[in-house]
Amino acid sequence: MKNNIKNNIKKEKNRKESIIEGNNINFKYGDTEILKNINLDIKEGNFISIIGPNGSGKTTLLKKFLKILNVKKNEILYLNKDLLSYSNIEFAKMASYVPQFGEQNIFFSVEDVVMFGRNPYLKRFQEESIDDKKIVEDVMKLTGVWEFRDKYITELSGGELQRVIIARVLAQESKVIFLDEPISHLDIHYQIEILKILNKVKKDKSITIVAVLHDLNMAIEYSDKIVMLNNGIVEKYGDIDEVITKELIKKVYKINFEILTHPKTGKKYFLPDYK
Ligand SMILES: Nc1ncnc2c1ncn2[C@@H]1O[C@H](COP(=O)(O)OP(=O)(O)OP(=O)(O)O)[C@@H](O)[C@H]1O
């Protein structure tokens, strides 16, 4: 009896709220249909990876979620509220974005760029507070960019710039962080480091992470759920075991490969044949 109650409490805690709801998301560039009737329910505090071949619509989907591309009424809801009814400031506290190709603004130092993450919390012309500065310093140390703080961002390598942009979204403290191939410019050390940091903010602060990842092994390691896009439709959305299957990977990526078990983590490990 006691165990039953305990289990029910545990189940209740695990029943997470829906933070993003996509209802029949569609998108066309000209006459070409890019996204076709996409329905997705993303729970708060989950790490969601979006995988799929080049051109399958991953970036387009992120841009819909971020209102960078036109959305229709009630096509996308955040916390049960239509995305279109959020003010810009409210939305900046809800969602932040690390784009595929980081911006380069020659007039700003690294520290300035990370400080931009605090803009939604500042009134017009208001100076940053000690708290804002502390948050910026902490996220810069976390992402390993504190030592570059006085450099201009044009003076950074691609991977260093990527980490600065990630520091900026962490400073923004939004409920959802969208990232488009966030580790593509990073060496293996920082690939793991950045995904570990994202995983930690997910766990500690219940932040929802939605990341486009090409590396299936990284997706397996860090995701709670995976969205597999193929030609503008959701081929599969679910737990790792449901999505990373021989049948689906072969169908979508058209390659030969093995799925092994990682000797240390016990998780699935994806190994292409390279032929
Ligand atoms: N501005 C645009 N105008 C017209 N077509 C576009 C535009 N941007 C993207 N597309 C097309 O939309 C489709 C989906 O592109 P998208 O960038 O969403 O794919 P993706 O899955 O993110 O690809 P990748 O893995 O290569 O980054 C592609 O066929 C692409 O050519």
Automatic annotation (TrEMBL):
Residues 20-256 form the ABC transporter domain. Coiled coil: none annotated. Gene3D superfamilies: P-loop containing nucleotide triphosphate hydrolases. Signal peptide: none annotated. Keywords: ATP-binding, Nucleotide-binding, Translocase, Transport. The lineage of its organism: Bacteria, Fusobacteriati, Fusobacteriota, Fusobacteriia, Fusobacteriales. It comes from the Bacteria. Pfam families: ABC_tran. The keyword Repeat does not apply. It comes from Haliovirga abyssi. This is ABC transporter. GO terms for molecular function: ATP binding; ATP hydrolysis activity.
